[in-house]
Each structure stands twice: as structure tokens, then as C-alpha cells.
Amino acid sequence: MSKKSRRQRTPNLPPEAFQVPVAKPKSLTTSDGEVAAPTRQAPMVAPAAADLRREYGDVLSDLKLTTLIFLALVAVMVVLSFFVV
After folding, report:
1. CA end-to-end span of the chain, whole Å?
2. What per-residue confidence (pLDDT) applies to 72?
């Protein structure tokens, strides 16, 4: 088991990386003094199944080919098991 170091670990980044401007929160009051309701972001919508088939068509064809090769190799092994003792 290795000895644990007690020194503070710091990332290997230039000093400019630590000078990130802080965003100021927007005021919840409108110009006439009323409190504005917080805004909500639209929910993420999953892509339709047709889009997935178009995007991953190559993957599905590769999986089908791999399955056919697997079944062929299993069949060859079964046939060879009768001849090789």
C-alpha cells in the first residue's frame, strides 16, 4: 500500500484559468417594482425513433453482421465436434 501524501494538490493550470468572471444574478424585480416570476427552461425532448434508426443504422447493420458470423462459427464448431475426437 502506498503512502498518502498530505500536501495540497493543485491542478497544473495557468493562473489565467482561475480568474473567471463571476456572473451577477439578475434582479427578480421589474422596472416598475413588481416581483417577476422566475423563468423556466424548456424540458429536453428525446429524439424520435426514426431519427435514432437513421443515426445508428450503421451500428445496427454491424451488429446483425456480427450475429451472423457468431452463429456461423458456432455451427462450424458443432459440426467439427462430431469429427474431431
Report:
1. 50
2. 98
